[in-house]
Design brief:
339 residues; 15% strand; 12 helices
């Protein structure tokens, strides 16, 4: 079987697909990953076959957009920056490589080109769900910024408002225009449509996101993949020296793609000072750090979490599913600051 993988997003979205691809390859399947060239070096180091999909400029522009971290504008920023420019390319890529009975596609629910390929070409599609929040439910519901909670009818109404006025106006114009060119009827309910009718693979355990009565029927659980770059690189000597240089630090990370976290890191340094604790700041964008870090607060661009979380006092982070899972694996206290 030839598995075509389409990770969309940041390192936190890409790492699970690396783990998935390596697992498929170890079982004798052929695997090709189509992803942003920003991650080309990562895939080369893992030995997975890689083909560029989208551009580095798209990734850089999207991650630099302050709207990416806005509670109501983030979806449009992701869609316009990283999904809409590429979903037709995704469809054509799948059509060129699809061999009936020999090909399966794995993509997120943002892989709308793959979803349309499923409808038009009959391609077997696995929608890879990294976190339970992608399943809207009237029962045990995800909580979004501005939501009131309340009885089931009120939650249902709030989800309808979000889909009708936030998601559908962004998604439907371009998607329905493309669907029409392929003889498909308009799509009316984005959040119900973009899940595969073949299989939704949950890369989290059922205790973390219990199945709800109104979820898609085609749901399978695989648990947290827990793959990070500790599998392909040795611990950094400078990081080891820092960890061994005093009491276990508190780790602060705002996500691998976050360039808007200056206030978060200022608060982190202030918290370390007030508590008299060592801190470890992780970000690839050092321009958002305070100019002069005090003694006892260190900065590193990237550290595989499996190398350090067993040796720290606590982790303060943005709620990314990979970071959350690694904290749970290590049994380290975590404070989530949703962004």
């Amino acid at each position: 079987m030839h598995a075509l993988l389409f990770p969309i997003g940041s390192y936190g979205d890409v790492h699970p697909y690396v783990g998935l691809g390596l697992a498929l390859k170890s079982r004798g399947h052929r695997v090709t990953v189509f992803s942003c060239p920003y991650f080309a070096e990562l895939f080369e180091r893992t030995g997975l076959d890689f083909e560029p999909f989208g551009t580095v400029a798209q990734y850089e522009t999207t991650t630099a957009d302050p709207k990416l971290w806005h509670p109501r504008k983030s979806f449009e920023a992701v869609w316009k920056g990283g999904v809409e420019p590429n979903f037709e390319q995704q469809f054509e890529t799948i059509r060129e490589r699809y061999l009936p009975g020999e090909t399966v596609v794995l993509s997120s629910c943002l892989g709308v080109g793959a979803r349309i390929a499923q409808e038009v070409l009959g391609v077997p599609l696995v929608t890879v769900q990294l976190q339970p929040v992608v399943f809207w439910s009237d029962f045990e519901s995800p909580r979004y910024a501005g939501m009131l909670g309340g009885p089931r009818w009120l939650r249902r109404f709030q989800f309808w408002i979000g889909e009708r006025f936030v998601i559908d106006p962004v998604v439907r114009p371009s998607v329905n225009a493309f669907r029409a060119r392929h003889g498909l009827e308009p799509m009316n309910r984005t959040v119900r449509w973009w899940h595969s009718t073949d299989c939704n693979l949950c890369l989290f355990p059922e205790w973390f996101g219990p199945r709800q009565p109104d979820w898609p029927t085609s749901v399978e659980y695989a648990g947290f993949p827990l793959w990070d770059e500790s599998a392909i690189e040795e611990p950094d000597t400078e990081v080891v020296r820092y960890l061994e240089g005093g009491e276990p630090p508190v780790v602060f990370t705002a996500g691998s793609a976050n360039r808007q976290a200056a206030a978060f890191f200022r608060a982190a340094v202030d918290a370390c000072d007030r508590l008299g604790r060592r801190g470890l700041l992780l970000t690839k964008f050092p321009e958002q750090l305070p100019p002069d870090l005090p003694d006892g607060v260190g900065h590193f661009s990237y550290v595989p979490f499996a190398h350090v979380f067993d040796r720290v006092a606590a982790v303060v982070h943005h709620g990314g599913i990979g970071t959350t899972a690694q904290c749970l694996r290590a049994g380290v206290p975590q404070l989530i600051m949703p962004m």
